Automatic annotation (TrEMBL):
Entry protein name: Glutamine--fructose-6-phosphate aminotransferase [isomerizing]
InterPro entries assigned: GATase_2_dom, GFAT, GFAT_N, GlmS/AgaS_SIS, GlmS/FrlB_SIS, Ntn_hydrolases_N, SIS_dom, SIS_dom_sf
Assembly description: Homodimer.
Locations listed in the record: Cytoplasm
Pfam family, any one: SIS
Organism: Bradyrhizobium nanningense
Organism domain of life: Bacteria
MF (Gene Ontology): carbohydrate derivative binding; glutamine-fructose-6-phosphate transaminase (isomerizing) activity
Any one GO cellular component localisation term in the record: cytosol
Limits of the Glutamine amidotransferase type-2 domain: 2-217
Length: 608
């Protein structure tokens, strides 16, 4: 889960390396480093912590060199120290790596027996030592890399820089993305088109097992068998501009406030607004009538979007849905029926578990649809159909606007399925579309609760733990709300289906634990109120999120009641998500946490 960049340039390269690393920080930010070729020497600079620490170090004494590699790290093996930061270098070769070398222990033992001197605790360091061992035996850099690659087990995207070879960069990948960028007399390697966007829009994506040997004027790609292969070169549409915070203090705040706009944008992509009809922008390669079961597969917040969509598909299209977290899907050997449908959901489109699950689903003969935010991502490229979420770049690590747009797309898809399967009449369809069209306005109205939530956050900030409860579609929203709070404020929080409370979690309730109840006035409202009574009876402090009718009917003492606009309940999660996002955000700010880059996390999770 790291970001990689490599450049053969025509000017001193360090500024461009750092600029690309800035764009890659979403892949990890616990340490960073660069290596350049200075004359015959490899000059390596590394720093613990955020990229700004490396920038500071480089500002005082920038390395020269027109060829270089860079890395921003999310630690897997070894603490996030300067010593474990990449690049890792030996006498003759420097390497940056994304992924995990699973057999690093055996390789390290073997290389140490042969005299290699390891300096870090990382799995990566075996790679330069292995390549160096071949170089010492007279192999050329290319042959040394090609001899080393089959010995590496696991997932990797690697970029190599060789002492004394100013016009050579080698990249290789397996189960981890790597792209070649073609410039004017320059050439680049990067984790993705986002990193390369300010340098070039001409991109060749490497495929699994590829090894690219680059000079400033040539690019030769070798496939797994070692013979030369041709890979398509395409124009990327990724913006070269770095997203900014506008007038907001954090990207997360900006992204929360963008939600009415991006929800509307996503919606109009999938609806014929004037006709009040769903309108997929392209034909799907199957008929929903031939589908017996949908498998929805995703991780984290994206998986909670899937949980909510399960209610919609089951109710509106009478289609059964199985939900899997991507890291479990492949391993539980579920019986899958060829011709059924897998929907994978991912903001980044690079999540390793989700990508592996997508590939597994394809191998099992399922149709695959991906709901992705990054249109150039691997998941988007590899799925049979892509339904883009038009949230725009999401920079804050905690997903907010991408989640809402995922829900939008899934809602439209569920209505499409219901219509195609004859479960929804034309009138049902147009009623549901009318409800969807209202959602962006309702999100904007929900944002008006911010001052009240900001005040509440000061109380929440002192809590040792928090519980979120909901029923129906509010249950998965409670899971998402708890994830949002814990990941950015570090307050332990859990979400439960409200009816589950009495089966164990109620033992946690005391005066010190805020219990946030998400309860629009819907057909399960009374049941939720009963669960709220159970909390109140045990002294729990209740924060109720509801609408006007719910507020007047609840008849339970609450610490705070947040009243949202009245709406038809079906698509309520898209509106009720707003206060829980704001509560997490303001609580994290009140606790002085690093909201956009919380500890231990990364925006794109490219290791399993
Ligand atoms: C939490 C969050 C994560 C992601 C998860 C999947 O706020 O953002 O839980 O949802 O890591 O990431 P994507 O959607 O990129 O596959």
């Amino acid at each position: 889960m790291c970001g990689i960049i490599g450049i053969l340039g025509r000017d001193p390269v360090v500024g461009k390396l750092v600029a690309s690393l800035k764009r890659l920080e979403y892949r990890g930010y616990d340490s960073a480093g660069v290596a350049t070729l200075e004359g015959l020497r490899i000059e390596c600079r590394r720093a613990e912590g955020k990229l700004r620490n490396l920038e500071e170090q480089l500002r005082h004494c920038p390395p020269a060199g027109q060829s270089g590699i860079g890395h921003t790290r999310w630690a897997t093996h070894g603490k996030p120290t300067e010593g474990n930061a990449h690049p890792h270098a030996t006498e003759s070769v420097a390497v940056v790596h994304n992924g995990i070398i699973e057999n690093f222990r055996e390789l390290r033992a073997e290389l140490e027996r042969n005299g290699a001197d390891f300096k870090s605790e990382t799995d990566t360091e075996v790679v330069p030592h292995l390549v160096e061992s071949y170089l010492k035996n007279g192999y050329s850099p290319q042959d040394a890399v090609q001899a080393s690659l089959p010995r590496l087990r696991g997932a990797f995207a690697l970029t190599f820089l060789f002492k004394g070879h100013d016009d050579l960069l080698i990249g290789a990948c397996k189960a981890s993305p790597l792209a070649v960028g073609h410039g004017n007399g320059e050439v680049y390697l990067g984790s993705d088109a986002i990193a390369l966007a300010p340098l070039t829009d001409t991109i060749t994506y490497l495929e699994d097992g590829d090894c690219a040997v680059l000079t400033r004027t040539t690019c030769v790609i070798y496939g797994t068998g070692g013979s030369v292969v041709q890979r398509e070169t395409s124009k990327s549409v990724v913006s070269s501009l770095l997203a900014d915070k506008a007038n907001y203090r954090h990207f997360m705040a900006k992204e929360i406030h963008e939600q009415p706009t991006v929800a509307g944008k996503t919606l109009t992509h999938y609806l014929d607004v004037a006709a009040k009809r769903v309108a997929m922008p392209m034909a799907l390669p199957f008929d929903f009538n031939s589908i017996q079961r949908i498998s929805i597969i995703a991780c984290g917040t994206a998986s909670y979007a899937g949980h909510i969509a399960k209610y919609w598909f089951e109710r509106l299209a009478r289609l059964s849905v199985e939900i899997d977290v991507a890291s479990e899907f492949r391993y539980r050997e579920a019986p899958l029926r060829r011709g059924d449908l897998a929907i994978v959901i991912s903001q980044s489109g690079e999540t390793a578990d989700t990508l592996a699950a997508l590939r597994y689903a394809k191998d099992q003969g399922l149709h695959t649809i991906s709901v992705v935010n990054v249109a150039t991502s691997t998941i988007a490229r590899e799925s049979e159909s892509v339904l883009p979420t038009l949230a725009g770049p999401e920079i804050g690590v905690a997903s907010t606007k991408a989640f809402i747009c995922q829900l939008m797309v899934l809602a439209v898809l569920a209505v499409t399925a219901g219509k195609e399967r004859g479960k929804l009449s034309k009138i049902d369809e147009s009623n549901l579309v009318r409800e969807l069209i209202e959602v962006p306005r309702l999100i904007a109205a929900a944002l008006l609760a911010e001052p009240q939530i900001e005040k509440l956050a000061h109380l929440m900030a002192d809590a040792r733990a928090a519980i979120y409860l909901g029923r129906g579609t509010s249950a998965p929203l409670a899971f998402e709300a708890a994830l949002k709070l814990k990941e950015i404020s570090y307050i332990h929080s859990e979400g439960y289906a409200a009816g589950e409370l009495k089966h164990g979690p109620i033992a946690l309730i005391d005066e010190a634990i805020p219990v946030v109840v998400i309860a629009p006035y819907d057909r399960v409202f009374d049941k939720t109120v009963s669960n709220m009574q159970e909390v109140a009876a045990r002294g729990g402090k209740i924060i109720l999120i509801t609408d006007a009718k719910g507020a007047s009917e609840a008849a339970v003492d609450t610490l705070v009641t947040i009243v949202l606009p009245t709406m038809v309940a079906t698509f309520a999660p898209m509106v009720y998500a707003i206060p829980v996002q704001l509560l997490a955000y303001h609580t994290a700010v009140a606790r002085g946490a690093d909201v956009d880059q919380p500890r231990n996390l990364a925006k794109s999770v490219t290791v399993e």
